[in-house]
């Protein structure tokens, strides 16, 4: 009998990232632990419900994405990318995930909130 395959931290995070950036919040959140913490600019999102609300608020604004880099070890993954929205395609974002037992338990999210503010009215 063979042991069940374990998903690597990188595979978990890339699956999560592909899901939310394509608008599939349910799939993304299926990879997040109930007690996960997301340290976002200006607030700590504690628990899956708070994390979901934050992600669901931003995902519809996303029009594309340019990946810059990724780094991973057994339990940590860093993604560096440029989210595309109506206001910017060049503002950088970085996320540092901690993954335990195939689920994301912590995310340190770094981005410039002002770059994603609504465009100035003409």
From TrEMBL:
Q: Which SUPFAM superfamilies match?
A: NTF2-like
Query: Could you name the domain of life of the organism this protein comes from?
Result: Bacteria
Q: Where is the SnoaL-like domain?
A: 13-106
The molecule here is called Ketosteroid isomerase-like protein
């Amino acid at each position: 009998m063979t042991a069940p395959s374990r998903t690597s931290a990188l595979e978990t995070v890339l699956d999560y990232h592909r899901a939310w950036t394509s608008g599939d919040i349910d799939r993304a959140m299926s990879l997040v632990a109930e007690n996960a913490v997301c340290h976002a600019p200006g607030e700590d999102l504690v628990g899956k419900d708070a994390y979901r609300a934050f992600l669901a608020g931003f995902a519809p604004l996303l029009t594309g994405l340019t990946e810059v880099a990724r780094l991973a070890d057994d339990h940590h993954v860093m993604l560096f990318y440029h989210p595309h929205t109506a206001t910017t395609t060049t503002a950088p974002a970085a996320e540092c995930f901690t993954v335990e037992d195939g689920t994301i338990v912590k995310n340190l999210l770094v981005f410039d909130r002002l770059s994603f503010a609504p465009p100035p009215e003409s």
